[in-house]
Amino acid sequence: MMEAITPSNPSAKKKDLKRIFFGFALIFLAVFSAAAALYWPEFQKQFFPEMTVSAQKIVPFRSETKRNGTEPTTSASETKVAVAKKKSAPQEGFLWVDQASLQYIVTLGKAQGVSDAKRLKVYDGTDLLGQVVVSRALETVSYVVPEKSVDISKDAYYRVVAE
User: Fold this and answer.
1) Which residues span the domain enclosing 155?
2) Which one of 24, 55, 86, 124 is least enclosed by Cβ atoms within 10 Å?
3) Strand, coil or helix: what is 126?
């Protein structure tokens, strides 16, 4: 039942204003939530780049053509060659000194194509400091030994490039 708004009863008008304000607040929250849900992948790429995972689609390399209506088979080595050709850009990582063991560690490993005895270039910003040699390559990191001419501080991080 509707209350009549009279000069002696202004509370009905205040209740209506509260309801209208609450309704607009709910509509604003709904629009904001919908916009955030639609644009979340873009926000995530911009503000949280370490959380985004780039999905690499590996397409098998087909060296043969279709003959007699049969699909040619692709061996694993052909697929690896196609992926290796695709990854011709140099891999970059970081070098630092592990304070507990005083060993030089690089954030490049077998997954990035680094193997034992491979030479990596060390940069301080854009300045080339020298090279390091991989002594032990693991899956995601490698232990390296600096050449004698390389001056690496134990309290700094350096950029490393594997070509």
Assistant:
1) 87-162
2) 55
3) coil
Same domain, 98 and 154: yes
CB neighbour list of residue 2: distance below 8 Å, 6 or more residues apart? none
CA 120 remoteness from chain centre: 22
CA distance 88 to 85: 6
Q: Is residue 78 part of a domain?
A: no
Backbone phi and psi for residue 19, each to the nearest 5 degrees, phi listed first: -65, -40
- Using CA atoms, how far apart are residues 26 and 32, in angstroms rounded to an integer? 10
Cα(144)–Cα(113) distance, rounded to whole angstroms? Answer: 15
Whether 136 is in a domain gets the answer yes
Instruction: Indicate if the pLDDT at residue 151 is higher than 90.
Output: no
- Residues 104-138 have pLDDT tens digits of 999 999 988 899 999 999 998 888 888 999 999 99
pLDDT for residue 102: 85
DSSP helix/strand/coil, 89: coil
Q: Are residues 158 and 91 in the same domain?
A: yes
Our count of domains for the chain comes to 2
